[in-house]
Design a protein that fits this description.
368 residues, alpha+beta, 4-stranded antiparallel sheet
């Protein structure tokens, strides 16, 4: 009698009694839903064939039917309508976030077809949360929404345009590049690799005008960034239209002052490899040794022996690594464009990059 009267009530309110609708109303319990509009949403879900999957997922979910579940199922993208997703969401807002994440994956990962994602959701294990699931798909990114205007085959700089490339970068540099994929996917930042030895990674952020700015430079294993190598990297990026943030060092020994006062650098731009007086002090003895070596090398032989690549920079092809490093460091200091007047910077940059390419060849030939 109660069931019959309930169906009559539904018939009177909605004009029909869709299959399964009385049952889901029973699972709501005796207390009314907080928003009367949810009853209409629920009715349409059970009355319309196009919402069959939403209806079935709601019915598959064990326990009472709640207002939150109805809102989540109602808002979810059709591809995400599955009990494995419903169980991992706590609010309608999270459902909207999941929809946005799915749209991001679709836009940036060519392999993210509807069938592939549906199958992955079907196979979602109990121990995998939704964040892990979505991050795994983002790792397949191969179509970032924006990238700086660096030639694809540039011999010195490589732009990381895929999750696979960023994972490889993270392994080679022993850093957290893999965790930055989402920032590249949303167009917030990009990572670039400086190929010449010893290699560096640049972190660039996108500006509102579509341009890019260099905000950080990282060495392997997040070690000390060589200021001369960093300067070459900054110069190259500047030639590609990517300026660096100011180091904020208009006063001598700025880094030392900040350290002494215990206030730190202040965030972005703290690690761009700009030379400080502290760095010059540390390099002083090595630079002096390289000068003595270069002078002795010239007076004893007149010119370097062996392969012509070595002769370009005054080295013997059998010289020990420490000698090659000292000469390279001295050459960087002497040719660096930052130390040249403005009207000579273009020529100095060209000579500096050519010198870096030469030493890069030497490093490869000798296996340094």
């Amino acid at each position: 009698m109660t069931i019959t009267r309930g169906r009559e009530f539904i018939q009177g309110v909605f004009g029909e009694v869709p299959g399964g609708f009385p049952g889901v109303l029973t699972r709501i319990g005796p207390d009314p839903l907080p928003d009367p509009g949810l009853y209409l949403i629920l009715f349409k879900m059970f009355a319309s064939p196009q919402h069959r999957v939403r209806r079935d997922v709601l019915r598959q979910h064990g326990g009472p039917t709640t207002a939150t579940q109805i809102r989540i199922i109602h808002r979810l993208d059709p591809v995400l309508v599955h009990k494995n997703v419903l169980e991992r969401l706590q609010s309608a807002s999270e459902a909207e976030d999941a929809n946005a994440a799915l749209a991001l994956i679709r836009n940036t990962a060519l392999s993210a077809t509807e069938d592939a994602i549906r199958q992955a959701i079907e196979n979602l294990g109990d121990k995998i949360d939704l964040a892990t699931f979505l991050n795994r798909w983002l790792a397949k990114m191969d179509r970032p929404p924006a990238r700086p205007l660096v030639p694809e085959n540039d011999p010195e700089v490589a732009v990381m345009t895929s999750g696979e490339a960023m994972a490889s970068l993270g392994r080679r540099f022993r850093n957290c590049a893999t965790t930055r994929v989402v920032y590249a996917a949303v167009g917030f930042e990009v990572l670039l690799e400086w190929k010449p030895s010893p290699g560096l990674v640049a972190q660039c952020h996108r500006l509102t005008d579509g341009g890019w700015v260099l905000t950080d430079i990282h060495a392997k294993a997040n070690g000390r960034v060589d200021p001369v190598t960093a300067a070459a990297f900054r110069s190259k990026l500047a030639s590609c239209g990517i300026p660096a943030l100011s180091p904020g060092s208009m006063h001598p020994r700025t880094s030392g002052i900040l350290s002494l006062l215990g206030v730190g650098h202040g965030g972005l731009g703290a690690n761009l490899g700009f030379e400080d007086d502290n760095d010059l002090d540390e390099l002083g003895s090595d630079l002096e040794a390289s000068r003595r070596f270069a002078k002795a090398n010239a007076s004893e032989r007149g010119e370097a022996r062996g392969h012509p690549v070595f002769r370009r920079v005054g080295l013997d092809q059998d010289c020990p690594r420490w000698i090659a490093e000292l000469v390279r460091q001295e050459s960087r200091k002497r040719l660096h464009p930052d130390a040249k007047p403005s009207h000579l910077k273009d020529e100095a940059t060209s000579r500096f990059l050519e010198m870096e390419r030469t030493f890069g060849e030497i490093w490869k030939m000798r296996g340094f």
